[in-house]
Specification:
The protein is mostly helical. It contains 5 helices and no strands. It starts with a helix and ends in a 12-residue tail after the last helix.
Length: 164
């Protein structure tokens, strides 16, 4: 029963947080342009690929948080266990990278330089948040296990698989 509740929390978190970053805020800021008419021209396919890969990465990471970490990436239900499986074996922040790919896909789809600037500003804010809040918090919560993980897995650029 608790597993189902965590999955529901993950969906609600997704709608509220990444949903705000990728849908609600860009819509409010009027960053979207017209969607290309179907059938989509060949030039649209890179955006579709970026959107699909980004979404798949995000979903996989949310699943890892809910099932392995026994929590969600939000203060209301932090993971009880350090997540070092799935895509987290290759890079410390794959969920953010998934959202970044969605934002890049949107900027390509709408051919919007404003959207691309928005994505870069978002990435800069996330980078600062990771350094100032997330990493010190993970160090406090998971102590030595996070420190070992951190020495073997890079923050943003995927590398070789980590073996716990």
């Amino acid at each position: 029963m608790r597993q189902l509740a965590r999955l529901i929390e993950a969906v609600v978190f997704t709608v509220l947080v990444p949903g705000t970053v990728t849908y609600w805020l860009p819509r409010a800021l009027d960053l979207w342009g017209p969607v290309p008419a179907r059938p989509w021209p060949l030039a649209v396919w890179p955006s579709i690929v970026s959107l699909a890969i980004g979404f798949a990465i995000y979903v996989r990471c949310a699943w890892e948080f809910a099932t392995r970490g026994r929590g969600i990436p939000a203060p209301i239900d932090h993971p009880k266990q350090l997540v070092v499986s799935g895509l987290y074996r290759y890079v410390r922040n794959p969920m953010y990278l998934g959202v970044l790919l969605v934002l890049i896909g949107e900027s390509l789809l709408f051919q919007s330089s404003s959207f691309l600037i928005y994505a870069l500003v978002w990435l800069a804010c996330v980078h600062a948040f990771v350094i100032v809040y997330e990493e010190p918090n993970l160090h406090r919560k998971f102590d030595g296990s996070y420190d070992v993980y951190r020495t073997h897995v890079r923050r943003w650029i995927p590398g070789r698989a980590y073996r716990a």
